[in-house]
């Protein structure tokens, strides 16, 4: 039974970067109510009323996974590891974005699935790409004649698909008998530990725990046999899944993560009620900092036009009253305006200049990479504001 625990108010689609802030454009902006629920039976944490995926994954999808060095390195590392460990003949990726993961394999053995046409067009010249939503129909089309996939990889995608039944049935059909499916997504453990409520937005229909994934897949002749924690996106989990009767043994790592999740009470509604209280306190503290800095005439910008900051800005009502502009390296975000609060987005070359006193870490998950890049800003006294895991100013 689904029980609501968090209300993040009226939100726009996190990907709806606006081409202009004129009244005609703003009048067409779409908003929905974002609330988050916990299912007391299967332990799934999800957006209560998901948005139709057709309105989200269009030919104007802005996010490019290759934009950060951290992600380029992380995907190359896991691709090499999978190649060595499993020697797959066929590798399929669901939600291949700009190819940052799958390009690491020989193009003869790869199959990419990507519903956003602009992204699929980027990779289809380089390797086989299906510009479609993942479904049983598509799985049957792909594997009608060819051999099944030995590896199915999907990072930051399965959590975006509302219909898990269709998703896992299609995966079960596509996987070879001893094949392995790897699902990587921000973990519920990290979200609860870090109070990173901005991992909730329209696209993150689910924030998974190993407990929930294990329950979800076992209905479809599949089995979770291993997990691996990673640092990416502020704490993610790779879930390793095989067919029910495949030879893989349940690992100690999986048993220990399940124990940790139970210790953290990720199977109890009260945990999420307490989390919701901490989220409200976080909003209050963040606004206090912004107000105080503006009273002393400080110039604040935001670093990284992330989808996560759509949640923060719209939940906390942070607009140009506090933030002059947002910087982002992604070309197709520059010159646009943030969803809902309409803050202009500039390139870092234009925006990270000596007039900036404070930068809100919209891309807090890349803190290490950003601090390294912005040594000069820090050296001259520039500071970052973050809300994860606690609201504070950095460096101290
Ligand atoms: O699941 C999803 C995740 C993985 O990616 C999505 N549905 C969409 C997107 O969410 P996000 O925007 O919150 O993700 P990121 O990867 O945290 O976005 C970082 C943004 O910051 C990018 O637009 C690039 C930008 N950036 C920057 O301007 N300077 C990043 C770095 C590291 C930098 O130095």
Largest sheet: 7 strands, mixed
Extended strand count: 17
Q: Residue share in helices? A: 25-40%
Estimate what percentage of residues fall within beta strands: 15-25%
What is the structural class? alpha/beta
Rg to the nearest angstrom? 21 Å
- Please work out how many helical segments DSSP would assign: 14
Low-pLDDT regions? none
- Separation of termini? 44 Å
- Overall pLDDT level: 97
Major β-sheet strand ordering = 6-5-4-7-8-11-10
Which structural traits does this protein have?
396 residues, alpha/beta, six-stranded mixed sheet, 14 helices, binds ligand DWN
Description:
- The protein is 33% helix and 23% strand.
- The protein is built from 14 helices and 17 strands.
- The strands form 3 sheets. The protein has a 7-stranded mixed sheet. Strands 14-13-12-15-16-17 form a 6-stranded mixed sheet. Strands 1-2-3-9 form a 4-stranded antiparallel sheet.
- α5 runs parallel beside α6.
- The longest helix has 27 residues.
- The chain starts with a strand and ends with a strand.
- The mean pLDDT is 97.
- The protein binds ligand DWN.
- The site of ligand DWN has 22 residues, from α11 and α13.
């Amino acid at each position: 039974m689904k029980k609501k625990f968090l209300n993040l108010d009226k939100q726009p689609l996190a990907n709806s970067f606006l081409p202009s802030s004129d009244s005609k454009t703003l009048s067409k902006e779409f908003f929905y109510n974002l609330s988050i629920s916990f299912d007391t039976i299967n332990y799934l944490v999800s957006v209560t009323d998901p948005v139709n995926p057709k309105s989200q994954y269009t030919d104007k999808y802005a996010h490019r996974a290759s934009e950060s060095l951290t992600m380029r390195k992380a995907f190359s590392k896991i691709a090499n590891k999978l190649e060595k460990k499993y020697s797959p003949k066929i590798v399929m990726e669901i939600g291949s974005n700009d190819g940052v993961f799958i390009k690491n394999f020989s193009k003869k053995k790869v199959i990419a699935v990507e519903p956003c046409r602009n992204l699929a067009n980027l990779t289809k010249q380089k390797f086989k790409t299906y510009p479609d939503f993942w479904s049983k129909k598509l799985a049957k089309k792909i594997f009608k004649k060819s051999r099944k996939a030995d590896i199915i990889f999907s990072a930051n995608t399965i959590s975006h698909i509302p219909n898990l039944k269709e998703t896992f049935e299609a995966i079960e059909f596509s996987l070879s008998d001893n094949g392995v499916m790897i699902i990587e997504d921000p973990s519920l453990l990290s979200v609860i530990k870090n109070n990173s409520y901005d991992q909730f937005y329209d696209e993150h229909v689910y924030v998974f725990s190993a407990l929930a994934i294990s329950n979800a897949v076992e209905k479809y002749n599949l089995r979770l046999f291993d997990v691996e924690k990673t640092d990416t996106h502020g704490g993610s989990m790779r879930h390793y899944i095989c067919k029910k009767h495949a030879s893989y043994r349940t690992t100690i790592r999986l048993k220990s993560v399940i124990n940790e999740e139970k210790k953290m009470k990720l199977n109890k509604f009260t945990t999420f009620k307490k989390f919701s209280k901490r989220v409200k306190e976080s909003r209050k503290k963040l606004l206090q900092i912004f107000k105080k800095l503006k009273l002393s005439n400080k110039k604040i910008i935001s670093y990284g036009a992330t989808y996560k900051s759509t949640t923060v800005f719209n939940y906390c009502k942070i607009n140009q009253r506090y933030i002059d502009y947002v910087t982002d390296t992604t070309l197709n975000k520059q010159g646009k305006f943030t969803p809902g609060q309409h803050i202009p987005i500039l390139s870092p070359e234009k925006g990270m200049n000596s007039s900036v006193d404070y930068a809100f870490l919209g891309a807090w998950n890349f803190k290490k990479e950003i601090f390294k890049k912005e040594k000069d800003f820090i050296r001259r006294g520039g500071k970052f504001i973050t809300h994860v895991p606690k609201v504070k100013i950095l460096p101290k």
